[in-house]
Design a protein that fits this description.
This protein is an all-alpha fold. The chain has 6 helices and 2 strands.
């Protein structure tokens, strides 16, 4: 496939390697966020309560972030995990980063939407050769 000056086979090793690197990069933020919430559990639960979201949902949030990120990284149920994290990213933007008059919140709002966009592309395309999904589909 030709894309500008780059030419590569969509099913080749280069495409599969780029896919894997992309999955790791987009998922790492959720893996780290989930692990951070584990180490700052009480503070995160309190912050969620202050934002109008029950802190009791924190275990579900942590599970979604960590399990979703790991699924994306290893390429297991990639499309479902990507769709789930896309919805999560949009919901997070709308609930926690909706004060777009604040420059930091403005950037976080659109960062979440951009990440959701990446996950939606992954939802459509799935994972390539270097994934559990590819191994299971053989």
């Amino acid at each position: 496939m030709k894309t500008g000056i780059l030419t590569f086979n969509q099913n080749g090793a280069l495409a599969a390697s780029i896919d894997l690197v992309g999955r790791v990069l987009i998922a790492t933020i959720f893996l780290l966020a989930g692990m951070n919430k584990l180490s700052a559990y009480e503070g995160t639960a309190g912050w969620m309560d202050a934002m109008g979201v029950p802190g009791g949902l924190l275990p579900l949030v942590i599970f979604a972030e960590i399990a979703g990120a790991l699924a994306i990284i290893i390429g297991f149920q990639t499309r479902l995990a990507a769709l789930g994290l896309a919805v999560f990213s949009i919901a997070s933007a709308l609930i926690f980063h909706n004060n777009i008059a604040d420059q930091a919140e403005f950037l976080n709002f659109f960062k979440n939407l951009a990440i959701a966009g990446g996950f939606l592309v992954l939802t459509i395309n799935g994972a390539k050769r270097y994934s559990v999904d590819a191994k299971l589909n053989k």
